[in-house]
């Protein structure tokens, strides 16, 4: 009888796992987008997030971010933060612009910002990923203060501009999605457009090591508490009459310079910036495994020096 009961339990557990694997937990299509016939996209309803910036929601988020999120993040990874003195040069809302290679990037930014700035920071998140189900949308809005943006084209959401006008800082990842191999992808124009249109400064941020700590496909950081570097740069302000197309390369170059600085030293990186010789952060022209191998090199300890990719 005991043996039969154990066998029944094992079979039941196996069946539950099989069903869970095949169950559609969200509304994402199972057929690859490239294999679907073209259809005119339907009008989608926008998930409201204004409630996430009410006093009650802000109080709940303060507890979640300072307590659970910060504790879990620092237990799983070792953040090395530098350049926070650059934030003292701000006297109003700003766009916080960073490279993006991991789901760790948003928690890293929120947990390393000064408390006063963090409380007034919202995060732009992909509508088709974080807002495809009500429970994921609600969780991301309350924990990270996210709001949806469309990354596949269409009209630019008015929400970022409204938030900046209300005194909120806005986190934007101009690459639009996480890097598949840890190297920086081409920056889109959205962040530069917002900065020029609303006359706000941009805080560039270079994040290094988050891909190695939690690459695409993982739901949790790798074991061993890997180091991740978060380096803030000086504010960039669009010049009078400067267009978004002219300002966008300056944002990308500033983030690249911060990543170069993290790989070598501040002095060497500044000399290369002055000479216009900063190395590209798009990675080596090599096979995917080599690019991944290069981008997962351990973060240098504080005060040491590491060779940059040439």
From TrEMBL:
Q: Where is the signal peptide?
A: none
Q: Where is this region: Disordered?
A: 273-310
Give a yes or no for keyword Transferase in this entry.
Answer: yes
The record's GO molecular-function terms, alphabetically, read:
1-acylglycerol-3-phosphate O-acyltransferase activity
Task: Please name the GO terms of the biological process aspect recorded for this protein, alphabetically.
Answer: phosphatidic acid biosynthetic process
Key word Acyltransferase present in the record? yes
Q: Which Pfam families match?
A: Acyltransferase
Question: Where does the record place the Phospholipid/glycerol acyltransferase domain?
Answer: 94-210
Name the keywords, alphabetized: Acyltransferase, Transferase
Q: What is this protein called?
A: 1-acyl-sn-glycerol-3-phosphate acyltransferase
Source organism phylogeny = Bacteria, Bacillati, Actinomycetota, Actinomycetes, Propionibacteriales
